[in-house]
Every structure is written in structure tokens, then in C-alpha cells.
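Example 9 (inverse folding). The structure is encoded as follows.
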């Protein structure tokens, strides 16, 4: 494993080297940029650790390259941009922690002190920027060896590392998931996994926002299921998303068992990830939560077997509570996830029946611009071990896709706007806002979606007037 050519050719490194020498300080590239050099992955973020003041070096480098410097004195860091790359400077430091907080007590330190406080050996490697050994690898914990072997390991005793900052437990799993995108599958060393199990209760001191941030990064990995399986194995998932843990296991009555919904959910999540051209975080959240209502709706019927009737409705109601518990946005992103969870059975129901124009119009109306994402989710939801059943459902899905395109081209329902407005009815009949206005609009909408009239003002107006007469207007 060697450094990919060109990673240290960036002129910013020689500029930092010159400025550091003029200040009489030593500077090193550290962390993710170094790791990505050896993995051959492009990186737009550079971390510089300085044996001295990171802020002073950043300000001097900023002056040399004519770049504005953002200074964060509370954290002792500074950042500048150089030709599209973010460069962050920090003084080398050593840290100690109190039991009840993940905020460290910080003191000035050496490069060695700084490397000891890093989360994992593969993130503790550094390149020297000194003239005498420019580009030399400083790797006291064998990070290069662990990187080649696909190993996630802490530089110090894992109990110390994880207890000091419990977020590192989730980060260990996230890095194993993220770095397994390539040819090498990364794994967390057994003693580290055991330490995560022992220290899992320490998650309680973390802010929900930081946990959600790590979950989001995990979800956009190429095979996100790996992270959720590891969180389950180590007991972290029970603290983070207990609703998912309830999907685990199967039950058998009279020889009838049901699908193992936890494994199914993770398979659907991976199916979505593999079908996307670009990661859509919120579609992946919808995949993760699409069956979340199943435990509450599970019933056994001697005639039909196991049922989960209404789990999509129950699941959709659970989405805001889950987002709120993780301090995630309760805006249109949450509403998008809620909508997809609510509608995820609709296309599947269509493929098992005759695909009528009316049913397709209603699906288009309810899904709106999210219809393509909904179809992708529903296609991913086909995980039967019976290949003939999968082939049949996929064939039927293509029928639904064609029908969606035909109906949309003909009726323009996707962004449906009722031709009849409340203002028009009030002006026409000289009435104030009242229940009848809503009833008239709903009657017209249903008539259009059912195909009884076309999606145009003339037919809608005639029908509305006829209904209004029946209502005594």
C-alpha cells in the first residue's frame, strides 16, 4: 500500500512548511487526509497539527495565500480555504476527561500527545512538513499496518478511548461501514467490540444531534446495513433506535412463521442504496423506517396466518416521534419520510390487482413529485427468497410504471391543483367560508381522480354547479 501519486504535491503543503519554519514551529498533516492518501481516495479536507499555536500559523499562511481565515478561539482552531480545499489548523494538545462529560480538559502538547488522543490508529497517522524529512510518515501505533489489514483499532486502551468520548463507539462502526466500500472489508478488533458492549451505557452523555449526525453519515455509505448490524451486535442500537430492535426475531404459531423483519429492513435499505445513482439520505431513512409499525400491528389469524394490517399508518405516525427523539429536523424532510412510510404498500397493492386508471391517479395525487422515490422504495421492498415470486412482482412493477407514465401524460395529476377554488365558490354564490365549500371541492377532486370528468375547469365547473344545486345553493 503506497501513497497515491499527487496527494502531497498540493502547493499548500510547501507553503505551510515555509511559514512554519519561519515561525520556528513544527507542522504535520494528520488524520483523514493521510489515511485517504494510502487508500487512494480524493480528499478535500486537510487537518494540520502544529507544535505551537495553530491559530498563529493559520493566520500567517492565510496572509501568504491571500485567503480569509476563520478563527475559533474557544477550540483553539482556525480554518482557511485554498483552491477549493479546506485546511484546518490546530495546536498539538493532550486531553483528559471528566466522567460526566465528553468535553475534554485540554493542555498544549506534542505531536505524540496529539496522536494518542486520536480515535483510531488509522486516523492517528501524520506526514511531516519539516524541510529535513518532508512527507515522512509518523505512525507510532501501526496505523498503516491496520489500514492494510482492514482493522479499526484504538491507539490506547479501548475502554479509556470509548469512556472518555462515547461518540467514538459509533464512529468506530461508521468507519468500518464507510471504509468497507472498497476492495477491503474493514472490521473492528474483538477487544474493541467487547469494549463497546461494556461502555454502551456511556451513550447517555452524548447529545442527540451528534448521534444523528453519525447515523446520517452511516446511512449514506454504500452498504449501510453493516453499520446497523454492528450497532445491534454491540448493544448500541437499543440506546439509539430501540424501535428497530423490536423488529428482530420471528414467532411461529401452528407451524406458521413470519418474515424476520429486522433483516428484511436492512436488506431493503441496502437495495435502495444499490439502486440509487446518488445517495438520498431521506429516502434511506424511509427505507430504514418503512416497517417500523409492524411490531405494534402483528396479529395471528388461524385462517390467513400472520398479518400486520395498518402497519404503514402506525409507522408513519411513529416517524415524527423518532425524528424528535434524535433532535432531527421536523420540516419537509421529516414529512417526506413520513409520506413514503405511509404510502409504501400502495404500489405493491396495485401490482396484485388490476391496475386501473383511477387507482393510478390517486397514487400520483398522494405521492406527487415523490412518486419516483416511492417506486424505488417499493421495488427495494421485494425481498422474497422465492425467485419466481420476485420475477413476477418485478414484471408487474414495470406494468405499473408504464401506467403511471401514461396517466401522468394524459391527466397531469402529479402536481394536481383543483380547478375549483374556495374563493371561486364564495364569489359565485356569495357565501362566507363554510363546510359546504370543502365538500364541493372534495366532490370535484374525487370525480377527477376517479376519471368521471377530465382535469379541466369547464368540466369541473359544470359538475360543481350541479352538485351545488343538489345541496340547495
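The amino acid assigned to each position is listed next.
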Amino acid at each position: 500500500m503506497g501513497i497515491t501519486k499527487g496527494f502531497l504535491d498540493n502547493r499548500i503543503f510547501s507553503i505551510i512548511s515555509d511559514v512554519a519554519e519561519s515561525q520556528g514551529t513544527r507542522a504535520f498533516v494528520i488524520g483523514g487526509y493521510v489515511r485517504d492518501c494510502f487508500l487512494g481516495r480524493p480528499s478535500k479536507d486537510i487537518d494540520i497539527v502544529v507544535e505551537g499555536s495553530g491559530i498563529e500559523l493559520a493566520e500567517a499562511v492565510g496572509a501568504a495565500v491571500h485567503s480569509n481565515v476563520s478563527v475559533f478561539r474557544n477550540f483553539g482552531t482556525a480554518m482557511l480555504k485554498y483552491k477549493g480545499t479546506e485546511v484546518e489548523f490546530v495546536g498539538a494538545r493532550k486531553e483528559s476527561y471528566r466522567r460526566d462529560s465528553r468535553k475534554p480538559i485540554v493542555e498544549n502538547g506534542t505531536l505524540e500527545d496529539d496522536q494518542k488522543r486520536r480515535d483510531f490508529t488509522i486516523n492517528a497517522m501524520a506526514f511531516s512538513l519539516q524541510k529535513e524529512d518532508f512527507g515522512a510518515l509518523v505512525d507510532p501505533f501501526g496505523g498503516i499496518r491496520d489500514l492494510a489489514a482492514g482493522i479499526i483499532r484504538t491507539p490506547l486502551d479501548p475502554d479509556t478511548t470509548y469512556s472518555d468520548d462515547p461518540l467514538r463507539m459509533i464512529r468506530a462502526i461508521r468507519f468500518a461501514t464507510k471504509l468497507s466500500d472498497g476492495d477491503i472489508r474493514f472490521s473492528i478488533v474483538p477487544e474493541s467490540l467487547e469494549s463497546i458492549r461494556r461502555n454502551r451505557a456511556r451513550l447517555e452523555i452524548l447529545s442527540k444531534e451528534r448521534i444523528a449526525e453519525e447515523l446520517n453519515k452511516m446511512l449514506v455509505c454504500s452498504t449501510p446495513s453493516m453499520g446497523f448490524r454492528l450497532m445491534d451486535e454491540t448493544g448500541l442500537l437499543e440506546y439509539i433506535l430501540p424501535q428497530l430492535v423490536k423488529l428482530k426475531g420471528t414467532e411461529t404459531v401452528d407451524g406458521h412463521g413470519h418474515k424476520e423483519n429486522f433483516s428484511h429492513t436492512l436488506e431493503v435499505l441496502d437495495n435502495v442504496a444499490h439502486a440509487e445513482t446518488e445517495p438520498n439520505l431521506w429516502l434511506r431513512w424511509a427505507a430504514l423506517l418503512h416497517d417500523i409499525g409492524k411490531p405494534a400491528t402483528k396479529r395471528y389469524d388461524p385462517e390467513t396466518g400472520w398479518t400486520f394490517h395498518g402497519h404503514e399508518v402506525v409507522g408513519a405516525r411513529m416517524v415524527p416521534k423518532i425524528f424528535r427523539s434524535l433532535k432531527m429536523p421536523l420540516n419537509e424532510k421529516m414529512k417526506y419520510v413520513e409520506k413514503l412510510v405511509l404510502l409504501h404498500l400502495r404500489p405493491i397493492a396495485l401490482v396484485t390487482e388490476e391496475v386501473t386508471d383511477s387507482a393510478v391517479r390517486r397514487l400520483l395525487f398522494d405521492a406527487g413529485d415523490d412518486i419516483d422515490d416511492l417506486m424505488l422504495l417499493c421495488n427495494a421492498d421485494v425481498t422474497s427468497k422465492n425467485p419466481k415470486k420476485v420475477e413476477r412482482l418485478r414484471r408487474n412493477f414495470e406494468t405499473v410504471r408504464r401506467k403511471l407514465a401514461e396517466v401522468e401524460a394524459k391527466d397531469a395529476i402529479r402536481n394536481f391543483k383543483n380547478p375549483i377554488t374556495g374563493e371561486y365558490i364564495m364569489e359565485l354564490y356569495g357565501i362566507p367560508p363554510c363546510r359546504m365549500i370543502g365538500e364541493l371541492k372534495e366532490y370535484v377532486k374525487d370525480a377527477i381522480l376517479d376519471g368521471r370528468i377530465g382535469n379541466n375547469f369547464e368540466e369541473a365547473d359544470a359538475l360543481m354547479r350541479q352538485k351545488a344545486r343538489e345541496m340547495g345553493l
